[in-house]
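Homework help board

Subject: predicted structure for assignment chain

Our instructor gave us this sequence and asked us to write out the predicted structure in token form, then describe one feature. I got the tokens but I'm not sure how to describe them. Can anyone check?
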Amino acid sequence: MIKMIRRWWMCALLPIAACNTQDITIDQTGAEWALPLIQGQIKPSELILKVATEAQLLIQADGTLIIRYTGDVLQKTKKEIFTPLPGSFPIPMIDTNNQITLPVVNNVIIKKATLTNGNYFFNYAHNRQEAIRLELFVPEMKLNTNILRHLIDVPYLGTPVVGNTSKFSFNDIIMIPVNNKISLNYKARTLSGEAFKMSSVFFIFDQIDFSYIEGFFGQNTYDLKKDSLEIDLYDGFVQGGIYIDDPRIILSVTSSFGFPTKAVINTFDLQTKDNNIIPFKSKLLDEGLFFNYPKINEIGQSKTTTFVFNKDNSNVRDVFNAQAKRVIYDIDALSNPLLIADSTHFVTEDGKFTIAVTVDLPLRGRITQYPATQIFEADASKLSSLESGFLLLETTNGMPITANAQFYLYNGSGALIDSIFVTPQVIFKAAPTDANGVATVAAFNTLKIPVPGPKINAWSATRQIRVETVFNTPADKNIIQISNKDILTLRMGFVGKFKS
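My token output:
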């Protein structure tokens, strides 16, 4: 009989597919046999993913686990912040030299810019009864290192002479204003070289857009929209059923805009399962969240600033352990928050802000009454050949938590046959821990459960076993660390005598 039981345990340690009842050698002398019913293992990651279905589970190199919730990325691009300037009306060139003051848009004074995505042309009129040559030029604009200049030959077709030039593209024109001003100039001459003044000249454009702006950026608030992040971890627990020792909210801001920025926190709240709203507080928020940014010699680069709100600098532990279900945030960006006068910064065509909010819940803490269910397929038909016996249940627990369980037996139609225990029993003993709550060695437990003869025949119809388990942190432990290396194993078989 001892050899036969050892043979069963050796079999039970192998994968299920490699072992079945036909592998068991019957001890004909003792007229006894062992029938393996179920065996398997459970990793903590499998338990967590059943309750935190909206989360990503991170397994660290040392096996420790982090439940991560990631919100949608909030983004603001250059095209959203610096929209093209529409051409509203023709600009008159009253004299041959006209000073135009550029409009201040979004509190930006342009010192240098590259234009794009637009077209311009000139409208003209004169009363000379001869062909003329019209020279149009803008000293503060350059194309291919040359001053922007157009020479137009205007034929005489009758008085008055009225016309438009062709349309010209703004693409790649460099504009370098002087004191935020540019000049719109013209020279009109007859073919003999006589200068004269036109009746009218107008500068007309459909829109002006910039692929690059360099200049002074004043204070402007950029709306990054309101959003929320759903947390489903606490849905599977009763109030206080899970306690996370060091939850973290991580705010990451990436900017390729070349000007200083500060976060404007309009809303930063946590909503609990019972719909209470708890304001999020942190000394980091009180100090101000200033974003890193590329300097003028770092054009094309992006800079990321990360703010980590933890139990040491915020009330995050209190609000999360009040069973938070949603993080609600409305964050804007304020340019040049310290209002540095006469500063020079920049924006590029592909510039943008991105803000990402992440919640990390490291599995360090304690749990109470955490339910978990595992279903095993099991063919117990050979039990009908036995007249008496016992169930042998063996568990190994690498986690520092205990577990009570009940085993329910179902037939091939899914109907409940019986339960193994009258009331749930402790099947997993907690693994001992060090001072930090980390398991040091797995805990082993064996249960020998007598089965009355009258039950054996009914149990032989079992085709599925449902194990309902409830996990708890031991009463003598305050904080424990869960690791994915801390595996639970379960083996159960029947040892009995043949009917005489």
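Reply (TA_rk): Your tokens look well-formed. For the description, you could write something like this. The chain has six helices and 38 strands. That's the kind of observation they're looking for.
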